[in-house]
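Lab channel / #folding
Pinned by the channel admin:
"Please post every new chain as: sequence first, then the structure tokens as a reply. Keep commentary short and put observations after the output so the thread stays searchable."

First post following the new format, from NK:
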Amino acid sequence: MEVNSFRELEKATNLARGELFRLGTALLFIVGIMLVTYARHDGVANSELLIIAAMIGGYMAMNIGANDVANNVGPAVGSQALTLTGAILIAAVFEGGGALIAGGDVVSTIQKGIINPELISNDTTFIWLMMAALLAAAIWLNVATAVGAPVSTTHSIVGGVLGAGIAAAGWQIADWEIMGAIAASWVISPVLGGLIAAAFLYSIKRTIVYKSNKISAAKKMVPILVAIMTWAFSTYLVLKGLKKLWKFDIISASLIGIAVALIVYFVVKPMISAAADKMENNRDSINGLFVIPLIFAAALLSFAHGANDVANAVGPLAAINDAIIGGAVSAKAAIPSLVMLVGAPGSTIGVAVYGPKLIRTVGSEITELDKMRAYCVAMAAAVTVIVASQLGLPVSSTHIAVGGVFGVGFLRELLEANHARLLDEIREHHKDDSPEIVDAFLEKFELAGVTEKGHLLKELKENKGPTLLKKERKDLKKVYRTELVKRSILLKIAAAWLITVPAAGLLAAVLYFMIRGMLLP
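Reply from TO:
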């Protein structure tokens, strides 16, 4: 009994030590920001506000890393293509690299144009508004990370700016048409991501998994799938990840993507063929061919996210810096080195110390992911953004990625139920035969390809026994419906998505009144 108590105490101590290390690392980063900002802006009017804002910006950046980055690497970890440590290293390097290399020189201070800056009375009110918005978004992301819910960083910032803006200037400051489009993205993003991920998974099953000779099918299809992924990520990177360095339209970006994809196709085709020749003719072996593409996908998604989202998420900090240094309110602000020194390292620290929880949630707690399924989620993340951006649909990368995970999970449920029903029908048709005959037919059925399975079932129904009635089929679907997606996680994430904007907005309004009350003479 004493030994067990000692072990429990030791376990609790280790947990506490780990939590203290994470908290200490975060505090050191915040203190470092305070010292650097003070050293760079000592003597500037209202420099104390800039120091406070920079500290809040650092807190926000860490929460971006902890929550948002998990969507980029979570599927690769869940499928065991990457270890958790490897994923954190890749995310940290490419997230920070994307922010520093391709983050751009100018950032939008009023996210998505949701409020009209002309209705803000003065630059002091604008500074208070942005501080409240930034802090509210950071707190909401922190809460979401703590409960294990991946939410949209952009939506958090939008909610914060909207709530603080209304508190500062009334309801007329908001552009409700834009807010309606953002609200529509709560449905558009996950549904589109889920459908695209499910479509890719079904095509892989039809062209590889359901074939009797999986090795031959893999030699033909995997190079094509890798080329499609290369096109998608090249186009995605040019359109989103590098858009602040060079402007490309969809046609130019697609042509660049096609050129890169063709090169990759001819390079990897003999490599995949050689690797496939050494494999066994089963699904598990074929899964191994998707490891390298998944690692590249995690890296490229992290780079694009760092370039596109990190700078935007700390846009309020750039706005505060612009208002204090320049004394003006503007919809666009230059990104000073201070903002990048906060955003890039902050997101890196956030994913390293607080990211594992959300990485596990996205990678393994929603549904079981193997490498083929993770590939489909990564493809959905890139393709959906490309399609949506050209259609003018407002989408969230977080919602897309998580929707993709749910999409492959629900497709698995459908296919598993259908497979179980078919096996039950086969046993029903063979109910008068010996167990040996039934087992032999089932073995033949399992090894057959899609076309051959169809012929076997057709012959079975023509030559053996009655066909199940429609009601009996419906009952069998209920019996064999296997829940491969955790509904509790689904409900928790959906609830978090729905309340992100209003929760961040309400919190920002409260914080704005608190900040104004403390700073008014």
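NK: The beta strands are 106-108, 332-334.
TO: also worth noting, Residues 2-414+484-519 form one domain.
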